[in-house]
């Protein structure tokens, strides 16, 4: 019974991902068909449902499945889950029509409150047998980063009422939120869940070695926030701190891979699971390389000047590293089957759209022309991501 609850909840998360993909397709076709919706409002809906509907719901479901004491707290978890869905559906029904306004802010606030409730619930009810595990330490750190990231949305209201949306502090608050979401909460949660999979097979990284990785990585998570401030061309000290953070985060992840790579070979992975894991790891290191590059003042300015480079980076992080990492985990733990055919639709859509988005940013940088039909091709290829997700849902609809 417990497993079926988590399977249903992962299906809900995938449904949000498909909805976010559908909104993304509408945004891609907007310049072609001039739909009647407000483009900016739809971007808000797309991003909120992708981050909070897909990633948050999938991660919290996996965390509950792996770390909670069995059979003692299902009712509390279910209540938290469904109140969270009320907030997500509320955002889905309000952001496309009003952007940031009374009702969308209400549902966004409700979501933040429910994330705090989940944090408290997990802190009180995690299974004692995992108390000293490396995986639980990562999950606790991830949840703290989730809470810390929420300071950004709270600050937005104050900034809007005092300095206005044109203030640099408005953008910094958004970047603060995004940074500690994907570099802190999401990355640490994925690592914690991966370590749990290893520990379940009695493969444990020695405590001393793990603590070196843990503190180096967390120093990197904190310091790489300064990468998100370089667009204001701050003092040289912040460039140095951002560079140290990028190096620390890279060193931490390399250290983890070095400690875990031999044990990974023992994990009972299917060919597709091995492919998903290797792809996610490869994208992690691409992300680290890009962070190191943008710590340099010249490339920091380039990333700021050409928005498509930033969009490509964010999509690579969320659609690539995080989403493919989640595909691996939900399939490995048996909560959702990732079929090869559906994944191929998703991956090729992801890969080609990334190439096109980065091409446009690069072309603007070096002053190349954009080829004819670029917008139409990007829109059509985006359909592949949606098709892959819909096929995944269809293949899992009767699974219990």
TrEMBL record:
Native species: Flagellimonas taeanensis
TM regions (residue ranges): 12-33, 45-68, 80-97, 103-122, 143-168, 174-198, 210-232, 238-259, 280-300, 312-338, 345-368, 374-395
Protein's UniProt keywords contain Lipoprotein: no
Full protein name: Cytochrome C and Quinol oxidase polypeptide I
Alphabetical UniProt keywords: Membrane, Transmembrane, Transmembrane helix
């Amino acid at each position: 019974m417990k497993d079926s609850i988590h399977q249903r909840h992962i299906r809900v998360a995938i449904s949000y991902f498909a909805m976010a993909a559908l909104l993304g397709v509408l945004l891609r076709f907007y310049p072609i068909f001039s739909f009647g919706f407000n483009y900016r409002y739809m971007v808000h809906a797309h991003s909120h449902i992708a981050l909070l509907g897909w990633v948050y719901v999938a991660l919290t479901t996996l965390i509950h499945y792996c770390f909670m004491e069995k059979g003692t707290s299902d009712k509390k978890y279910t209540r938290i889950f469904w109140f969270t869905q009320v907030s997500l559906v509320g955002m889905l029904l309000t952001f496309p029509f009003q952007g940031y306004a009374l009702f969308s802010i209400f549902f966004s606030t409700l979501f933040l409150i429910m994330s705090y409730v989940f944090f408290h619930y997990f802190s009180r009810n995690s299974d004692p047998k995992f108390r000293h595990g490396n995986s639980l330490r990562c999950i606790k750190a991830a949840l703290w980063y989730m809470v810390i990231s929420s300071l950004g949305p709270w600050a937005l209201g104050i900034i809007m009422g005092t300095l206005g949306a044109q203030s640099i502090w408005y953008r910094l608050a958004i970047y603060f939120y995004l940074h500690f979401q994907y570099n802190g909460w999401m990355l640490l949660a994925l690592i914690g869940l991966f370590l749990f999979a290893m520990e379940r097979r009695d493969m444990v990284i020695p405590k001393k070695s793990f603590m070196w990785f843990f503190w180096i990585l967390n120093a990197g998570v904190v310091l790489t926030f300064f990468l998100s401030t370089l667009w204001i061309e701050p003092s040289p000290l912040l460039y140095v701190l951002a560079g140290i953070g990028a190096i620390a985060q890279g060193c931490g992840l390399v250290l983890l891979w070095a400690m875990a790579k031999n044990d990974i070979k023992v994990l009972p992975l299917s060919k597709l699971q091995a492919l998903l894991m290797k792809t996610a790891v490869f994208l992690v290191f691409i992300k680290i390389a890009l962070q190191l590059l943008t710590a340099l003042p010249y490339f920091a300015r380039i990333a700021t000047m050409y928005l498509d480079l930033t969009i490509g980076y964010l999509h690579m992080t969320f659609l690539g590293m995080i989403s493919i990492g989640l595909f691996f985990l939900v399939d490995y733990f048996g909560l959702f089957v990732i079929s090869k055919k559906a994944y191929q639709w998703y991956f090729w859509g992801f890969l080609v759209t990334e190439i096109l988005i980065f091409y446009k940013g690069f072309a603007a940088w070096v002053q190349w022309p954009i080829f004819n039909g670029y917008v139409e091709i990007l829109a059509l290829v985006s359909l592949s991501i949606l098709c892959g997700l819909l096929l995944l849902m269809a293949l899992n609809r009767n699974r219990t």
